[in-house]
Amino acid sequence: MDKMGFTSNFLSDAPEGVARDEIRLSGLSLETVLGVRPDERLSPRAVIADVRLFLDLGPAAASDDLSDTVDYAALAERLRAAARRSSFRLLEALAGALADEVLSDPRVRAAAVSLEKPGAVPGAEVRATLFRTASNKK
User: Fold this and answer.
1) Per-residue pLDDT reduced to its tens digit, 56-97
2) Whole-number Å distance between alpha carbons of 65 and 59
3) What is the pTM of this model?
């Protein structure tokens, strides 16, 4: 399993009816206000995101044209901006908001967003992962 909890055989990770092609952004550093305790709400903190987009990459593979796929550099900046603007108490809520941002591109059929909150629990890695499809985003 990788850090997001997925098997190495990614073809089996996508649910039935979802495109099996994917783009991954791993280790994306985000700054956001996040936490339940008052001291956590005082200033932004680092959160590490791993994001998987499931979509049909066939058009881009055939055309070699950026307009036929998701511009992952632009997506990374949108996710950073969304995190900077946010102020959530729970890691799960931030993951849901970021999944919605990923799914705002109609080409993306599903997304998995995994967030790590370094230092949240001494001696442990804290990670929350959400999977959303375009049809079940909130």
Assistant:
1) 999 999 999 999 999 999 999 999 999 999 999 999 999 999
2) 8
3) 0.84
Question: Rounded distance, CA 114 to CA 20, Å?
Answer: 18
Q: Cβ–Cβ contacts within 10 Å for residue 38, how many?
A: 7
User: What pLDDT, on a 0 to 100 scale, did the predictor assign at position 8?
Assistant: 45
Compute how many other C-beta atoms are within 10 angstroms of the C-beta atom of residue 35. Answer: 18
- Which backbone phi and psi does 9 adopt, to 5 degrees? -85, 85
The domains of the chain are located at 10-133
What is the per-residue DSSP string for 31-94? EEEE-SSGGGGSS-EEEEEEEEEEE--HHHHHH--GGGS--HHHHHHHHHHHHHH-EES-HHHH
Is the pLDDT reported for residue 130 higher than 50?
Answer: yes
Given a cut of 50, is residue 16 above it in pLDDT? yes
Cα distance between residue 55 and residue 75, in whole Å: 14
| Fold type of domain 10-133 | GTP Cyclohydrolase I, domain 2 (3.30.1130)
Encoded amino acid at 50, one letter: D
